[in-house]
Amino acid sequence: MRSYSAEYLDLTPPVHRGLKEIVDKSIFRKDLNIIAAKIDARKTQTIARALRDKAILHIRSYRNVEPAGDGKTLVLLKFPDEALLPPDVREFLEKEGAEFVPYTMELDYDHWTADDILQSVLPEDLAEQHPSGFAMVGHIAHLNLPEEYLPYKHIIGQVILEKNSAVRTVVNKLQTIDDADHVFRVFKMELLAGVPDYVVSHMEQGCKFTFDFTEVYWNSRLQTEHTRIVDMLKPTDLVADPFAGVGPFAIPAAKKGCAVFANDLNPSSYHYLNKNTISNKVKDLIVSSNEDGRKFIRYVFRQAWDMPMPPHRPKEKGESRRAAKRPPAPALARWAPEHARKRITHFVMNLPQSAIEFLDAFRGVLAPANMGDRPLSGEYSDSGSMPMIHCYCFTRFLEPAEAEADIRQRVEAGMGHPLGEEVSLYNVRSVAPNKDMYCISFRLPYEVAFAAA
């Protein structure tokens, strides 16, 4: 038996173009006249299974099988009258002893999706491409409305709020990344619907992040990229994150076993980074700071040498349960100094607007002028022991070859030295019609790290 669409039925809500607010939801009530198959209740499962994707009507929040009394059941079909029943459907139902009866479905506001309602209330020239998509950050739905939709922003917010049970707050971003606070990457936003509660709890990579969305930078669209970088790290790695934010790279990396020096200039980001470090139980593996990124790059090599991080120790099966029953050991007794992690193996530089401008800070970071007389030969002895740098940036070049040439030229100019052979480029996402975000990963050239001042 073939499948049939509901092409004979008008399943759209009543049209009320130009509304700025929905006050009376009864205006969306609509009667839908269809036919139903009245069958022996004992055959309900058999018939429903056979017709599920072929002839039964499926409407949000509406049961398509109803009791009819006297041991009978009504199976609602996607046809307005008996004359339109396809022959194979009719033959099957008649063999099962079905009786065809008219049925009126009473639909209201609750039966339609946000897309359906917005298409019925926005002006016709805006309805087709209406912005019902949004990013979720905890309980906040975050929109970036084009200018032509701003007169209808509150009804858009209202519909999104009412049609998504996980949403309690709907906001609209008022700036682009270029116009936002250049230092902290914090966007101005306006409340469209719901409660003005901007402190969220957001889950990503099995970690819980708490932060005030109005005070820090967070982009849920980067979750895949956060995971990509963390997946390439080894549990034994020592990672430096100059622009750590509230910890989307640092905390999952520490959960994996990496030790991390995490820094952010924004005091609010630093506050929530510390809070998230504690709540995710990785305090022993993250050292946080609230400094300028360039200053951090210069001193973190010294910090890693003078205050080495504990070695990675794989957990034994059942260890977490045993550990909970005994008091913690003194910190210094947990690991031997000779096993400490001193050598930084990765830098994550997620500041695409300007991270390349910080690459000059790597010149001479391992030279005596920065490191003094620390004996580095055992750790940073050759080119292969230099850290990998994962530097984010934007480019206006959309062709991959042109984008690569543009990014390489800017990175090499920033460091004052050509890149080596160990280089890869990854297109993270498109952020605007003529603007892509990339991550360039490369090994810090030995000559740059040990360059004279």
UniProtKB/TrEMBL annotation:
GO biological process terms, semicolon-separated: mitochondrial tRNA methylation; tRNA N1-guanine methylation
Cellular-component GO terms for this entry: mitochondrial matrix; nucleus
Transport recorded as keyword: no
PROSITE patterns: SAM_MT_TRM5_TYW2 (PS51684)
The UniProt record lists the keyword Transmembrane helix: no
Enzyme Commission number(s): 2.1.1.228
Domain SAM-dependent methyltransferase TRM5/TYW2-type stretches: 134-446
Residues holding S-adenosyl-L-methionine: 226, 264-265, 292-293, 350
Top-level taxon in the UniProt lineage: Eukaryota
The reaction(s) this protein catalyses: guanosine(37) in tRNA + S-adenosyl-L-methionine = N(1)-methylguanosine(37) in tRNA + S-adenosyl-L-homocysteine + H(+)
Chain segments carrying region Disordered: 309-331
Pfam families: TRM5-TYW2_MTfase, TYW2_N_2
Keyword vocabulary terms for this entry: Cytoplasm, Methyltransferase, Mitochondrion, Nucleus, S-adenosyl-L-methionine, Transferase, tRNA processing
Annotated localization: Mitochondrion matrix; Nucleus; Cytoplasm
Listed GO MF terms: tRNA (guanine(37)-N1)-methyltransferase activity
Function: Specifically methylates the N1 position of guanosine-37 in various cytoplasmic and mitochondrial tRNAs. Methylation is not dependent on the nature of the nucleoside 5' of the target nucleoside. This is the first step in the biosynthesis of wybutosine (yW), a modified base adjacent to the anticodon of tRNAs and required for accurate decoding.
PANTHER family: TRNA (GUANINE(37)-N1)-METHYLTRANSFERASE, TRNA METHYLTRANSFERASE
Record note on quaternary structure: Monomer.
Protein family according to the UniProt entry: Belongs to the class I-like SAM-binding methyltransferase superfamily. TRM5/TYW2 family. Belongs to the TRM5 / TYW2 family.
Protein name according to UniProt: tRNA (guanine(37)-N1)-methyltransferase
Organism listed in the record: Ceriporiopsis subvermispora (strain B)
